Amino acid sequence: MADNDFLALGRLRDRLAQRAGRVSGHWGVFLRGFIEHPRMVGSVIPSSRYTIDKMLEPVDWANCQLFVEYGPGVGTFCLPVLEKLPADGALIAIDTNPLFVDYLNETIRDSRFTAVLGSAADVEEIVQASGRGHADYILSGLPFSTLPNGVGPAIMAGTHRILRPGGAFMAYQFTAAVRDLMAQEFTRIDSGFEFWNILPCKLFWGWKD
């Protein structure tokens, strides 16, 4: 692609982002985040309630003190998690996009919640900085099939190390690429499928022995 083409593409992206910024509420924030960082946002449409319910169904909430989410976007999963999380539990949402992090910290008024600007590959440091030794459940909507080389395996290795025994890494994806990464660390992987989502998505739960 020629330099002029790159410049034209950049200007188009900036115009679209400005228009998205004028859309009210979380839809505007989500659309702007997708336009600015399409490779790091899994979908232009937030997950459906059906996907949320099915993804969270296996969680043992009574024994969940720390729930971590990678790529929370505008918080589609955050509020449902907080509704079920014990009063003394905590939810840490990790995102590389400052737009999403700022939006979540400004709109979710819950002392159990923190949005952190950072990479999921640094989950061990982030969890330890929170004063906790491990996570009970980790949820991810990151598009693992489009992550740079080496990032996916690094995320998966750190995820497995920071999970407590009996905990789970949970992922919802449009492809099954993440399952191969999970299999490098997790011996037991359950799978599911949710049709009522745009697009229909594959669900995975990797359990730490």
Structure described in brief:
This protein is α/β, with parallel strands linked by helices. It has helices spanning 3-21, 25-36, 49-56, 78-84, 98-107, 123-129, 151-162, 177-183, and strands spanning 66-70, 90-95, 113-117, 135-140, 163-173, 188-194, 201-207.
Q: What does the radius of gyration come to?
A: 17 Å
Q: CATH superfamily name of the largest domain?
A: Vaccinia Virus protein VP39
Cα shape: globular
Q: Supply the CATH class of the largest domain.
A: Alpha Beta
| SSE order | HHHEHEHEHEHEHEE
User: Under the CATH scheme, which architecture of the largest domain would be assigned?
Assistant: 3-Layer(aba) Sandwich
How is the biggest beta sheet arranged?
Answer: 7 strands, mixed
Helix content: 25-40%
What this model shows, in words?
The protein has 209 residues and is an alpha/beta fold. The chain folds into 2 domains: 3-36, no CATH class; 49-207, Vaccinia Virus protein VP39 (Rossmann fold, 3-Layer(aba) Sandwich). It is 39% helix and 22% strand. It has helices at residues 3-21, 25-36, 49-56, 78-84, 98-107, 123-129, 151-162, 177-183, and strands at residues 66-70, 90-95, 113-117, 135-140, 163-173, 188-194, 201-207. A 7-stranded mixed beta sheet has the order 3-2-1-4-5-7-6, with helices on both faces. The longest helix is centred in the N-terminal third of the chain and has 19 residues, at 3-21. Mean pLDDT is 85; it is low at 1-24 and 40-44.
